[in-house]
Design goal:
The chain is α+β, with helices and mostly antiparallel strands. The chain has one domain: Ferrous iron transport protein A (FeoA) (SH3 type barrels). The protein is about 15% helix and about 30% strand. It contains 2 helices and 5 strands; from the N terminus they run E-H-E-E-E-H-E. A 5-stranded antiparallel beta sheet has the order 4-3-2-1-5. Strand 2 and strand 3 form a beta hairpin. It starts with about 25 loop residues before the first strand and ends with a strand. The relative contact order is 0.28.
């Protein structure tokens, strides 16, 4: 049984990685969720300031394959919804 606390729910007003279009580069602004969950994503390289993009989506919509820092990994859509993003800023 999974319990959801309002403090750990995804903020619907801020865009998340789970709602990003394919092949659209975005910058991670924050990672939400429970402490152990955040630690896992941070260890995988999903750090604030990192540019990521969704490469592929599985046929049933879950998981998502993302590209970051020269590597690719797959995360569930629920996990991606906890990653807050902002548009890539060009210099």
């Amino acid at each position: 049984m999974v319990l959801h606390s309002p403090a750990f729910e995804a903020d619907s007003g801020t865009p998340s990685l789970g709602g990003t279009s394919l092949r659209t580069p975005v910058t991670i602004s924050s990672v939400g969720g429970e402490r152990s969950f955040r630690r896992r994503l941070l260890e995988l390289g999903l750090l604030p300031g990192t540019v990521v993009e969704i490469i592929r989506v599985a046929p049933l919509g879950d998981p998502l394959e993302i590209s970051l820092r020269g590597s690719r990994l797959s995360i569930r859509r629920e996990e991606a919804a906890q990653v807050r993003i902002k548009p890539v800023q060009t210099a």
